């Protein structure tokens, strides 16, 4: 993953995704933007008590920087998956948040960007390079336990005829094994995931997501991971575990109109 300075705001991109013709993606940092402390600066969430005008400005900057219609989602750490269709998008609105709560978004619509907001959870971006279908998954530890990643891949297969062998994936900056501490893991984490424990109470959820993607049929070489812990880098990314009262950064993905 590499950093791009775009008009004094900062975006990260994955080399593996950036090399795919017609695919747009980005991960924001917290740098730039207009939000004030403790949400400084590029907070994209209305749900953290930030000034709504600042959030509107930050979202509009991101839309201008990456183009297309931006579709956000109402995340609730569940397993609901929403397919974005023309009926989901009000005419003439470049930034939308469908009323239905969901923790994963899928679309085959060109020029639509699917956005997930995080502050320690993972954003797992998926793209089928043959069918030109994109997905974005909000995956915290509850999502990992429920295998929302595998559910999303299965939905792409069922609804769009995708083949996992044609998919690429990228796991965004999130809580690393250094900081993913679960002192009550025996009650919270199922035993099948205990092999991913890296200390008395720490888990490697990056490796769990890689495993779930491969179990869903993706080639291991087609899975990239930022490998950046948000709690260790609160100067770059919002981290709930590090700061509690903080903003949310965004990851987005979507296909462009074919030339």
Q: How does this model look, in words?
A:
With 259 residues, the chain is α/β, with parallel strands linked by helices. It has a single domain (2-255), classed as CNF1/YfiH-like putative cysteine hydrolases, CATH 3.60.140.10. Helices cover 22% and strands 25% of the residues. The chain has seven helices and 13 strands. The chain has helices spanning 15-18, 52-66, 141-145, 148-160, 185-188, 205-215, 240-243, and strands at residues 2-6, 9-13, 23-28, 69-71, 81-83, 95-96, 104-107, 112-118, 122-128, 133-139, 167-171, 223-225, 249-255. The strands form two sheets. It has a seven-stranded mixed sheet with strand order 1-2-3-13-8-4-6. It is globular and about 50 Å long. The protein starts with a strand and ends with a strand. The model has no long low-confidence stretch (mean pLDDT 94).
């Amino acid at each position: 993953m590499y950093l791009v300075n775009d008009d004094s705001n900062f975006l990260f991109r994955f080399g593996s995704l950036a090399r795919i013709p017609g695919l747009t993606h980005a991960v924001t940092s917290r740098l730039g933007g207009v939000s004030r402390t403790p949400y400084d600066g590029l907070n994209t969430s209305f749900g953290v008590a930030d000034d709504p005008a600042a959030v509107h400005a930050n979202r509009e900057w991101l839309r201008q920087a990456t183009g297309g219609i931006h579709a956000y989602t109402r995340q609730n750490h569940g397993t609901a998956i929403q397919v974005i269709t023309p009926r989901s998008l009000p005419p003439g609105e470049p930034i939308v948040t469908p009323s239905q709560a969901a923790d994963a978004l899928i679309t085959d619509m060109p020029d639509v960007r699917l956005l997930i907001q995080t502050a320690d959870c993972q954003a797992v971006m998926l793209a089928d390079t043959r069918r030109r279908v994109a997905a974005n998954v909000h995956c915290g530890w509850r999502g990992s336990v429920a295998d929302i990643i595998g559910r999303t891949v299965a939905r792409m297969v069922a609804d769009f005829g995708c083949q996992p062998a044609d998919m690429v994936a990228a796991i965004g900056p999130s809580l690393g094994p250094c900081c993913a501490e679960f002192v009550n893991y025996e009650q919270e984490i199922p035993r099948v995931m205990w092999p991913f424990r890296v200390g008395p109470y720490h888990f490697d959820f990056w490796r769990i997501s890689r495993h779930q993607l491969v179990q869903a049929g993706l080639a291991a070489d087609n899975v990239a991971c930022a490998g950046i812990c948000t709690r260790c880098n609160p100067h770059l990314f919002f981290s709930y575990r590090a700061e509690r009262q903080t903003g949310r950064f965004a990851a987005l993905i979507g296909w462009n109109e074919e030339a």
